[in-house]
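Give me structure tokens for this 94-residue protein.
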Amino acid sequence: MASVIEAVAVGKRAAWSIDNYLSGQTHRFPPSKPRLRLEKTAVPEGESVPTDRPEMVLAPVKERSRNFEEAELGLSERQAVDEARRCLRCDLTE
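Here you go.
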């Protein structure tokens, strides 16, 4: 996830630089915002505490050493939904 966020940040900086170049003006890039600090919150009633990240299923070594197919086979739909739910409740994790 961090790589996606970093990629978006780099894209914004690139767009800012391109705008400066094409407009002939020099705008300062806005300073980066401080990281958000989340306070721990109580688990809402009826909601379970998020679990650890699921293990990524990998293709067997013999299969992946002979082709260029993805080695990581991905998560099931249920695992992906649970992971998204866990990720969105980062205030509950330790």
